[in-house]
Amino acid sequence: MSIGRVLAASALAVSLAGLAASPALATVWQVNGSSAACDDGGAGTAAQPFCTISQGAAVAVAGDTVNVAAGDYREIVMPAASGVTYTGAAGARVLGTENLSGVKLWAPALPTAWSIPYDPDTNPRQVWVNDVRLLEITTGPADLVANSFYYDGIAEILYVDIGGADPGESNVEAGAYSFGFDVNGLSNVVVQGFDVMGQNTSGIRVRTGTNVTVRGNRVHRARSFGILVEGTATPVVTVSDGVKVESNDVFDNGDSGIRLRTGTIRARVSGNDSHDNRNHGLSATDTTDSWIAGNELFRNARPGGVSSTGMILDDGSHRNQVERNRAYANQDSGFQVSGTEGVVRNTANVFVRNISDANGDHGFDVRESDATRMISNTSYANVNDGFSIEGNSTGTVLRNNIGVNNGVLTGGNDLWVDVGSTLGFSANYDVWFNSGNGTAHKIEYNGVEYDSVTAFRNATGHEQQGSGSDPRLANPGAGNFRPGVGGSALDNANAATTGFQALDFFGIAPVDIAGTSNTGTGTPNYADRGAVELPRVDAAPTARLSVNPQFARMGQQITANASQSRDDVGIASYRFDFGDGFVVTQTSPIARHGYTRRGLFTVRVTVTDTAGQTASATSAVLIF
Ligand SMILES: [Ca+2]
Ligand SMILES: [Ca+2]
Ligand SMILES: [Ca+2]
Known about the structure:
Blueprint: H1 2-19, E1 28-31, H2 53-59, E2 65-68, E3 71-74, E4 85-88, E5 92-95, E6 97-99, E7 107-108, E8 113-117, E9 127-129, E10 132-133, E11 135-137, E12 148-152, E13 157-161, E14 172-175, E15 179-184, E16 190-192, E17 195-197, E18 202-207, E19 213-215, E20 218-220, E21 227-230, E22 240-241, E23 244-246, E24 249-251, E25 258-261, E26 264-265, E27 268-270, E28 273-275, E29 282-285, E30 287-288, E31 291-293, E32 296-298, E33 311-314, E34 321-323, E35 326-328, E36 335-338, E37 346-347, E38 350-352, E39 355-357, E40 364-367, E41 369-370, E42 373-375, E43 378-380, E44 387-390, E45 397-399, E46 402-404, E47 413-417, E48 426-428, E49 431-433, E50 441-445, E51 448-450, H3 453-460, E52 546-548, E53 551-552, E54 557-561, E55 571-577, E56 583-586, E57 590-594, E58 599-609, E59 614-623
Parallel strand pairs: 1-2, 2-4, 3-5, 4-16, 5-17, 11-12, 15-18, 16-19, 17-20, 18-21, 19-23, 20-24, 21-25, 22-26, 23-27, 24-28, 25-29, 26-30, 27-31, 28-32, 29-33, 31-34, 32-35, 33-36, 34-38, 35-39, 36-40, 37-41, 38-42, 39-43, 40-44, 42-45, 43-46, 44-47, 45-48, 46-49, 47-50, 53-59
Antiparallel strand pairs: 6-14, 7-8, 8-13, 9-10, 9-14, 12-13, 50-51, 52-54, 54-57, 55-56, 55-58, 58-59
Bound molecules: calcium ion (3 copies).
């Protein structure tokens, strides 16, 4: 959080400069709902904190900070002013529910259901009993089954059925608030460090915001999206511009974990984990010129559904940069960019240095989209095609990608280009490889299947520098996608292609691997294909020692020579132990010594490389 705070402070300084206000006037408001001294009519100080975050939001002005202590805050926070930072301490929870535990509260209502008068801020859409989420029944209390609830919004009565027992004897949390934070029409607001849970709609919403930051929060159990960024289409068209969503953990939400839509521009979504949500990990519609980087998107799935992806860009999303993300074990494709046939398309989105593995459909899926660039991505062991280009997509360009073992059990392909998507299609410098099991084909293009890249090249002219050989990924089943020495992906990427990024998935620069010829294009000519570069392998040194002469008189100088020692990077030091108590450590590989007593001695050299790795060698010397 310290780096985040520095960033927040610098953003704050920029905003303050714009307001020509003095930072010295900024106020830090204290909120501590667990304090006996808390008072929303008080001073908002450490001695007399506010009880609610909403009170802090009501009084804070640009430049102020609202510090929130650990504890439960059952409220919807609607910031009133731009330029305010909300910081939650560890354990500061913003809950979208009210607690309805207590045996006196509930009355038996139906054979196995109980009821309670309940009139929260918004109608409950979720109820948990002892952390078990109940089924929402919308038709009437007579349709309740075990572990379900029904809310009568007219009579304002909540019915809960847990099979007969009084739910008040258990821990009951019932939905009460639409949002945890609802940042609407503001700029330079920061929401950071909170645990946001159980809202009737979304955990955190940013609507028509400018440079708003949502950072370092846990957002879970929202009925709909975890984090929502949007503009408006009606009554007027407005955008959300420059919103940052970074380093959040977003999970167990009822719809997509992170949702961008309706005029989201220049968003920066980075470093988030979005997982175990009941729709997409990240879903962006009508989102343009945004940067989506370094996110982990996994295990997103809708029970009984088939369409939850790791991330999806759709319906009017243009010029987005998607880089260094990993999507795995999602129900549908890892990464998808798609429009709606005949209605709206997407243009000029770039995917670079991403990894997509073990997803339920494609690794990367392009449909009803134009000018998509797929550069240096790795697609491994997805259920269907590794890269699927379909739905009349045009101008799709692939460079430096790796597709391995995709569609093995489904007759899929590492690369599939449908008959309507060959216009402007171009592929080169890619690796398409199947290890031989199953029914997969390496490539299907324009209705023809190819089991060899050479055949594909000869038939279509694509993949002039492509390869069908094994890239020797280190251990892809365990998440290690480094290409291996002797494989088809080393020192041979096209670094000159538009959109290429030298730094790999981990931020590591390309390395010239010794013994592998550099056959790439551009600078450097030794970048690797796929999302991950093989970094320098710093091997341990080898030590060699000769002693001359091996028979010598007392006092005679003998020479210990370790100059035949070797290291792949460099030897930092040589330590000579002559066996009579004389020891010297030096950078020169040659040492001399005269013995002062007779005997058979063992001379030992220990060489240490620049990485601190060592090796030793010995030789005997007889002094007479
Ligand atoms: Ca390399
Ligand atoms: Ca090389
Ligand atoms: Ca070394």
